[in-house]
Structures are given as structure tokens and as C-alpha cells.
Amino acid sequence: MKILLAEDDPNLGMLLQEYLKAKGYDVILAKDGNEGLDIYIKDSTFDMCILDVMMPKKDGFSLAKEIRLKNQDVPIIFLTARSMKEDTIQGFKAGADDYMTKPFSMEELLMRMQAIWRRSNKNEPENIEKQYTIGKYSFDTTTHQLSINGSTHRLTTKESELLKLFCQNKNQSVSRSFALKMIWGDDSYFNARSMDVYITKLRKHLKSDESIQILNLHGEGFKLICE
Predict the structure, then answer these.
(1) Residue at which a domain ends, from 86, 119, 152
(2) 224, 87, 77: which is closest to 165 by C-alpha?
């Protein structure tokens, strides 16, 4: 994926650029809105745009509207230090696919990028892992197969997506709301109850290795504990 990153904070901009490059993305950094537009006009082959809202010369909302005039489909994520509801609404009116309030974790940004990429009906980027080792288990996300000691079990699509999300954040907390929005599309009460059922199923699938745990974190979400 080729990313246009427009961020006027030089420290955050460089940090995000280096992090995403380490994950295999091609990232072009613009220091303000005008530079971001100039870059996009010269090269509109970007797969995604990540735009800071509060930038000099041209803010992120204005930049997004002008990018949308050239390309209606390119995904856009806004970054902002403000969490006002009006700003969020304005962001989506400007064509945002997602909206993140600073400070945010880079891991969550990466997950949201991947979710948007899937929703836009593109193939997943090649840098996304297809196979994971979970304790004594091996997990193939392409075939949805979970294997241990020569025995293989095929997970359902939702089980596979949920386990993949936990594997991508192994030994780190995953918020309930984030997991629901990533996999079910929204964090409604009924989807939350459904997710609890699937987590119970995953625990049963992983019970052959006692070192593996899917913890409930009160008020936070879940954490996959494993080597």
C-alpha cells in the first residue's frame, strides 16, 4: 500500500512514517495541507490518505475535499487532537472513512487501516501475516485452520477473524468496542453478546495448551496470553 501522510507535527509525522514503513508500507510525508495537495496532484496513485485535521496553510478537512474531487474512492483517515462531536461529523462529511483522536496507539491505527482496506474490496496487503504460532498451535488465517499435534480443526469465519485480531495483538489488550467494530461492524449490545459466545468457543478450541489464555479485562476488553 502507498500512503499519503499529511502531519504538521514533525516528530509525530516522522514517527508514523517510520512505523508504517517498518510494517511494509510506502509512506510519503507532507508537512502541511498545501504540500499534501501538491503531492497528491502530481501522483494520485495513493491507496490511502492519513490526514491531520489541524494543519497550517490548508486544514485536513479542506485537503480531503480537494482529494475527493480528484478521487472519490481513496480511503481517508483523519487524525485530530480534538474529540468534539461536531469535528467528527465534519470529518465524515468531508469524506472520512475513519477518525482517530490523539493520542492513539499505532497498533490501532494499523488495524483500522487494514479494516478499511478490506471494506474497500481490495486484497489484503502482502505484509499482513497469514500464519501464526499460538503456543503449541499453528493458525492459518487463509484456510481458517487451527492445528496441534497433527490434529486440525477448521474455524468458522467469525472465529477465525476474532482469533486473527487477537494474534495481531498478542499479549496486548484489545478493547471490546474495537473488536466489535472491526469484525461485526458496530458495537451494539446484541453483537457484544454474540462476540462473547465466540470467545467461549475459541477458549474451547485452544484448551489443549494450558499456557494459552484469553483474558477478560474488566472495563477494557480482552487479551490473548501466549508465548
Answers:
(1) 119
(2) 224
Give residues with Cβ within 8 angstroms of 214, minimum separation 6. Answer: 166, 199, 202, 203, 206, 222, 223, 224, 225
Residue 96 in contact with residue 77, Cβ under 8 Å? yes
Grid coordinates representing 201?
Answer: 468457543
Identify whether the C-beta of residue 63 lies closer than 8 Å to the C-beta of residue 39.
no
pLDDT in tens, the chain (227 residues): 899 999 999 999 999 999 999 988 999 999 999 999 999 988 888 999 999 998 988 999 889 988 887 788 889 999 987 666 666 666 666 667 888 888 888 888 988 898 888 777 554 455 556 899 999 999 999 999 999 999 999 999 889 999 998 998 888 888 888 788 778 877 788 888 999 999 999 999 999 999 999 999 987 889 999 87
Query: Do 6 and 110 sit in the same domain of this protein?
Result: yes
Q: Identify the helix (H) or strand (E) that includes residue 225.
A: strand 221-225
Dump the DSSP string for 95-128: T-SEEEESS--HHHHHHHHHHHHHHTT-PPPTTS
Structural domain containing residue 34: 2-119
| Half-sphere CA count of 28, side-chain side, radius 13 A | 18
H or E, element range at 154: strand 151-154
Residues 87 and 185 placed together within one structural domain of the fold: no
Read off the amino acid at residue 195.
Answer: M
* Number of domains present in the structure of the chain: 2
